[in-house]
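Quick one, T. Sequence first:
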Amino acid sequence: MSATSPRANLPEGIDPDDEWRGLNILDPDVQAAFRVDPYPFLAHLRSADPVNETPIGMWRVTRYEDCQHLLRHDTPTGVRRTDGKRFGEEQMPAALQDGGTFMLQQDPPNHTRLRKLVSKAFTPRAISRLEPRIREIARDGMQRACERGEIDVIADLALPVPATMICEMMGVPVEDREQFTQWTADSTHVLAALTSPPDVVERGLEAVRCLADYFEALIAERRKSLTDDILSDLIRAEEAGDRLSPDELVVHGAGLLTAGFETTIGLIGNGILALLRHPDQLERLRTDPGLEASTVEECLRYEGPILLTVRVAHEDIPLGGKIIPRDAMIFVMLAAANRDPAVFDAPERFDVGRKPNPHIAFGGGTHLCLGAHLARAEARIAIGEFVRRVGEFEVLEDQITWGASLFRVLGRLPVRFSPRD
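Structure tokens:
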């Protein structure tokens, strides 16, 4: 990649040399352009100022090697400040100043304790037992689409597969899916409360309240008859004593539901869109189904649903010739790292057979995504079923519609097609 190409690809009107290096996360116009296509911004930042302090004191790191360093177990970072508070907690809305008890907002030892309570449901062995059910859901969705000759990839496949699976795993009524789908998407915006518009944050807070009320009622009902599901396991842990508090029980019910399908919608939907935009790779996968697993890895690298993860420095950290100070907030730009030409050959090329593919779409270290095995299985099966059943196709909308989520998740993807088989 040449030194000038990232600058040349920035949208018109964006100043690549301003104090934000062209990526002002507080500017609504930049936010809109970044949502449509974040990669020119990330390429420019990685080339021009890869370890970058912003005007508001938050840091951004974009090179693969530096991102990997910050995610390692032995690097002094966490998700909270060294005083135990979350970054910017004092500036957050009052409703978010309760400390945040979900495991993703905790550092060890609390994170270790909470993660251990649910980790057994997400091991490779546990997920392998779920694969027949995942395939059944994907096949049912594709069969209905084939009968119509048309599919909304999101509503008919990318959402039902992970949403149904996490509901069944947790013991949440699947028939309530439509009720909480909007809540989960809106609630993701509280993760960016410091930089999101007030109305978006308030909508997210209302969604959090709705999810909490929903789970309080569901837990009260479930206590009467515990079963073999994650929610029942959490209730047993709470009833056993100090392993889980009543508040932690509600928060982890809502948090696991949201984490269990929101980003996987993006993985499946974004992955299928990438295949439709690269028909040569679609045909390659159709000819060689053995590439399904590597296709998922390339979808994660090329167009993953999570662009960044956040860390807080627990000591002064030397990086890229600079010093990131203790208690600084760091955006670890996963999507920039995953297209770093120092690591990936032709990183802008979508290649379903790419090997090696050491992407970091699931983060790393202590907070490596708990549901990575489940997401991979759901995406592999859903994308595989789509490729097997779809022949000639036409995408019915020129403009991409993004969903309500903070993450990079499509809102819809309508496709007319000729069924195969």
